[in-house]
Amino acid sequence: MSLNEVRRKWALGRRDLFADAFGAKNRRVSCGCPCRGRGAEGKDEVMKRLFMLGWIGLMAASGWASEVSASEVSWNGRIIDVKSREQITIDGLSRRLKNVKYLVLGEKHNTPTIQHAQAQVMEAAVKENQAIGNFTLAWEFLNFSSQPQISSQFDRFLAGEIDVFALLMSLQGSSSFDSYVPLIEGARALKGRLLGVNLSRAEKAPVVQGGIAAADPSLVPPGFEMGSDYYRERFEETMAGHAPAEKLSNYFAAQCLTDDVMAYRMFTETDVALRVLVTGSFHADYHDGVVARLLARDSAPALAAVRFIDASDYTEATLIGELLTHPRYGDLADFVFFVNEPQAEAPAPPALR
């Protein structure tokens, strides 16, 4: 099989190698957001590992972020500048990321094609900004209180003492995060640092139970503010049926605290030129959540938000509709990067005779 064929199989997503179940019990960090995750663990583990190891060898030989390319008729690899509605290449996106300080990558969790595309964009931004050895990769699934362990294990990874799978296992206690291999390996290849930015479930628990007033004051960033009314509206709509109605205010407070903790960690990481954040899309959509808090905290934010969309979750008609710009909430992000192909349109019902 040729290298291009292997790349294509990866770009199309080997989801058959990944189980559909993804639960909070499998991870140390609960994002607590409406971004529904997916993971892998079970009888396909050996097959998945073999595929990933083969992919690592091929990508190491040809560059970690080999391009997910798009044709005029394909959605896979299509990149849109949301404001101008222009379809751009990865090189065009790279030029538009010149001089950014914060790069927020909004994702569908644990989706191999998306994490591959994120690694591609991270590499483009790092190289465009001459930030090799001068950037951090912040990951929502890592707690900032665990930073000493994160740094220690990442140093072992850099030294070749452990491989990327052992690193992920040591940080997450689960093998459900192997789709993030391209990002972790990309951070190593580009000489970046790995940064924890979230709160643990235990640290969020008092807020879930009693609202923001119950939070440990030492965990609340200075100048903390709750999210916008529109953000709350979207949150409540998305969480309806997933949490008791009387608890939604507390859940929203935990969501907003998570946003601002991530933003504050990014804002105070001042010794690097570029700060890249990988987070669930709901934390960044419509420039709300962590994006809004970064914009509020930094008077010169130089921020770009890229939303990664799995086209296979939608029909083409939906993708062409109001997905990029909502009539009430505005633009979904600065740029949108599509992976995979949309679902086939449902056939029209037969005509009555």
The helix-and-strand class reads: alpha/beta
CATH class: Alpha Beta
Kindly report the CATH topology. Rossmann fold
The parts where pLDDT drops under 50 for at least 5 residues are 1-30, 36-43, 58-65
Structure annotation, total helices: 12
Query: Per DSSP, what share of the residues sits in E-state strands of 2 or more residues?
Result: 5-15%
* Main β-sheet, spatial strand arrangement: 2-1-10-7-3-6-4-5
Distance between the termini: 52 Å
Helical content band: 25-40%
Q: Let me know the average pLDDT.
A: 85
Radius of gyration: 20 Å
Summarize the main sheet.
8 strands, mixed
CATH architecture: 3-Layer(aba) Sandwich
